[in-house]
Structures are given as structure tokens and as C-alpha cells.
Amino acid sequence: MARHRAPGEAASKRRVASWPIALLVTALLVAVGWVGWSWLGNEATKRAAAAAGNCPGGTVTIQVATDPAIADIIGTETVRYQQASPVVNSECVKLKVTSINSAACAYALLHGWDTSKLGPKPQAWIPDSALWVNQVLAAQPILAGDTARSIATSPVVLAMSADAGRAVQTQAFPWTQVPALVAQNNGWAALGQSGWGQFTAALPDPAHNAASLLAITAMIDPASPQGQNPVDAALLGNADVQRDLVNFAGTQPSISLPTTRDALVALGGAAGVQSAPFSTVPTTEIALYERNLGRDGLPRAASVLDEVRVSGTTAVADFPFLPLTGDWVTSDQLSMAQHFRDFLETTPEQTQLSAAGLREALSNQHPNPSPGMDWGLFSPAATPTDNNGYQLLVSAWANAVAQSH
């Protein structure tokens, strides 16, 4: 027989069953509120810490590989950057600068990075020319963490001993005059120095030296005296151009000159033009300035070299800043590389770069003292740095070297 409940008894049991649920809901709300409040408090603490220059996320290091000519300058800039206690994504930024030849860095990025020889793989790269960036990205576009942007420029000039510089600077000296001088047995006679003999121009392999490539382009281009036309098969197939390349190749010094810096060292070791192994070498202005002061990683030159600015428009090195990406670069490191690049592009730092020897449109400051340098005005040419032109010129130079032997 079924048991009948009284109305009061049923109501009492329903009230007893509901209070644990209410208690549980209240506890959950308190817990969720506490978690949310803690998260907001933690975020506020992180932001306050970041604003104060602290690093709740720790310190992250990024490597910046730079051409030797600007390693000293970028090193100084990293000190200025660190003094501002930069914080990116709640992490403090620590920069380390490595001086690496631009061509060697390009090769290593494409063919394998040897940390035992080159140090840690970089998260940012500042070569002397977009030539190297274009070469790398033509083969591995995935390596670009962002667009490469020029942080400053430097014109390509001729470095000479002081006596040679004085002789040349008394007259207009266009790039296209150099091939004719090299072709003569007594090229210096055309410059009023008949007792000095042959005029020779060292051209460290353009396959690995941007200054050589840019200078050769300016010297051999018959249609445009300052090398504004692109390097193509038609230009390099010109009989006069081929002759000029063979003349240059046949008069190269016998000593090994792997880089433009090596050539500057060799030229600066002589007391004058008649004891020098060659008459001149094309170089970026900043590389010459740093060489004269011994700030490019090698001891100071025995003799100061003169800057000879070639008349007419001038090819320039553009020093692009390329943030890199890959399996060795974290998203935070990429952000930090971009942050440092942005810092270098600010007006105060552009002024600092100009005062250190680079060219910057908004500033006309130059280093003082700067022995051998004149820092004169120049008209920049459209610099041919496309990868196809580079490959064609490298091949043409190799053929000229083979013919000259």
C-alpha cells in the first residue's frame, strides 16, 4: 500500500535539497571572481613593471649581424638603445652585435651557419648593400621576417695614398676615365705624374664585395657614365666592356685581397703611391673612414688614405636592416629586431649615424676629426643591385680573369 506524504513534509524536503546547490553556485561565483580579479591584477602588475623598465617575462637576447664597416657604429647604437631600458612584450631586450662580412653572411644564411666560426645565428642583419639581401631572398624568401629598410647610406669612393689623392683631386675624375687609365702602361702620365708609371685599380672579387661590383658597373657602362643602367646581357656583351674587364682583371695585384677591407689595409701599409701594391681601390666612404681610424676590427692603418670622390652621380651602399625569421627566431625576437630597427630610424639616432660617418638625408653632420676624408656633397645614382645583374657580372668577371691569364 502506497505511503501518502503530508503537504508540509514534501515542502520541507524540497527546501533541504535546494540549499546545497545555492551554496555551490555561490562558491563557484566567488572562485571565478577571484580568478578574474587575480588575472586582471597580474596583467596590471606586468604592465606597470614594463612601464617601469622591469621585465616580468625575463630578458631575451637577439643577435645583430653587421658588416665590419659599421660594426663599431651599430655597437654604439646598441648601447644607446639599452640605456632606454627597452621592453617588448613584457621582456627586456639585450642586443649583441657580431661583425661579419656581408657576402660571407649571405652565404652562411643560404648554405648553413657555422656557429664555431661565425657565432650565434642572427635574428637581424645589416649588410652593406641590398645586393646581398636580394641574393638571399631570391633563394630563400621565407627568411624575411619583415621588409628590409635602409637605415643610412654611404657613397662609393676611391681610396688612395695621400700623394695620389692630391694629384687626382686637382681635376675632374669621372668613373669612366678609370678603364682608359688602367689600359695604359703609364696611366699616371695622363694625370700629370709621368714618373709614377701604371695606374692600377684593385678590385676585390665582385662576387663577394659590393663596392667592387658597384664601381665596376659605373666604370664599364658606356651608355651611362655613372652606371645607372641595369647590368644585363647586352651591356656585358659589349666589346668595349669586355675589353675593359679583361684590362682590369689583367692588372690586379698579385697579393691576395679577399675583401675591400684587405685591400685598404694593403694600400694603407705603403708610404706613398710609388711603394703601394696598386694605385687605388673602390670602397664605401664609411669603410674608408673606419679603416683610417682602425675601427673596423683590424689595427689602425700605418698611413692615412685619402677619399677621392668621383665626379658625377655616385653609386651608394644602402645598409638595409633585415629582420630575419626561421626556426631559430621566436616571435618575440622578431618583434625586438623590428623595435631596434625603428629605434635606428628615429631622428635622434639618424643624427647619431650621420655624426658617426654615414649619410642621412636629414642631417649633414660628419665625424670630427676624420683624417683623409672630405665629406663632400654627391648626387646618388640609381644603384643596380638586382640579383640577376649581380649573377651576370660575376660570370663576366670570371671570364675576364680567365682570359687575362
H/E topology pattern: HEHEEHHEHEEHHHHHHEHEEEEHHEH
SS content category: alpha/beta
Radius of gyration: 31 Å
The helix fraction, in percent, is 40-55%
Q: How many discrete domains?
A: 2
Largest sheet: 6 strands, mixed
The strand line-up of the biggest sheet is 2-3-1-4-11-5
The CATH superfamily of the largest domain is known as Periplasmic binding protein-like II
Label the CATH architecture of the largest domain: 3-Layer(aba) Sandwich
How many DSSP helices? 15
CATH uppermost class of the largest domain: Alpha Beta
* Low-confidence segments: 1-16, 32-52
Description:
With 405 residues, this protein is of the alpha/beta class. It has 2 domains: 59-152 and 319-355, D-Maltodextrin-Binding Protein, domain 2; 154-317 and 371-404, 3-Layer(aba) Sandwich (D-Maltodextrin-Binding Protein, domain 2). It has 15 helices and 12 strands. The protein has a 6-stranded mixed β-sheet with strand order 2-3-1-4-11-5. Strand 2 (87-88) and strand 3 (91-99) form a beta hairpin. The radius of gyration is 31 Å and the shape is globular. Mean pLDDT is 85; it is low at 1-16 and 32-52.
